[in-house]
Design a protein that fits this description.
single chain; 268 residues; globular
């Protein structure tokens, strides 16, 4: 059984055929999805989709959305986690973190909201799903200040040293479509060389399409789309298996066990 540890099923790209997307995933052997929220306005929709489709979910404020967030959204997150604390489908706080890649963002505001969400996760005794883009060291500094029970570092693309510092704190690292590009040398090296227990698989659907779905800027301008889906996970996994010399069954067993370990409520 495959687990897609990061899928934005609530995204508008899926509005026209969401049920079919889930059905294709199941037919491909992807039996569990983790649906992270990105804004307080999405909390109810993500929770409802998780229950409708037998998925798991996480609640949090994404760093790219914090500037537009209402001042009361941190309180709404705390309230939502408290209200749903008995819901076995709620497995983490996320997607939270820091984005130092997109220009012009309020990094101080991001940092403030990130640390406050770590405190919320700590108080709720929940792991976190972290967004990291050129921000690994800053994320680790936050984890040094506020200890949380591990989780997943989504779409990791840092150094091996940074990777191991996350692993030592109880995190697994998410690998997905970017790993399928032959020129993604650092990501592929990490996927091949990190300890087996450090790796989980994800699609980030509808984003981060794998190589076979990628469209150039000219193709996108001409109307060709490159929507990613959770059904692509087994094919993405074959890249990981090739890099590590694992069989398909071994890749599924190892990565699924890792997701359950770092997100213990998925055990049920």
């Amino acid at each position: 059984m495959w687990i897609d540890s990061h899928c934005h099923l609530d995204a508008p790209e899926f509005d026209a055929d969401r049920d079919a997307v889930v059905q294709r995933a199941r037919e491909a052997g992807v039996q569990r999805l983790l649906l992270p929220a990105v804004a307080a306005a999405h909390f109810d929709a993500v929770r409802q989709l998780a229950h409708q489709h037998g998925a798991a979910y996480a609640l949090g404020l994404h760093p790219l959305y914090v500037e537009a967030a209402d001042p009361g959204d941190l309180g709404r997150l705390r309230e939502a986690l408290a209200a749903q604390r008995g819901d076995p489908a709620l497995v983490a706080v996320g997607e939270i973190g820091l984005d130092h890649f997109v220009p012009g963002l309020d990094l101080e505001r991001q940092q403030q909201v990130y640390v406050e969400q770590l405190k919320i996760a700590r108080d709720a005794a929940l792991p976190v799903v972290l967004h990291v883009r050129r921000s690994a060291d800053a994320l680790l500094a936050g984890l040094n200040r506020v200890e949380v029970p591990g989780g997943i570092v989504h779409a990791f693309n840092g150094s091996r040293e940074q990777a191991m510092r996350f692993v030592e704190r109880g995190f697994a690292l998410g690998f997905g479509g970017a790993m399928t590009f032959e020129r993604a040398l650092q990501i592929r090296r990490l996927a091949a060389e990190l300890p087996a227990e450090a790796i989980v698989l994800e699609t980030d659907a509808p984003d981060i399409p794998p190589q076979w779905l990628y469209r150039t800027a000219a193709e996108r301008a001409a109307g060709r789309t490159s929507r990613n889906e959770p059904a692509e996970l087994p094919r993405i996994a074959r890249t990981l298996g090739d890099l590590r010399g694992w069989s398909e069954a071994e890749t599924a067993a190892v990565t699924s066990a890792n997701v359950r370990r770092v997100l213990p409520r998925l055990q049920g």
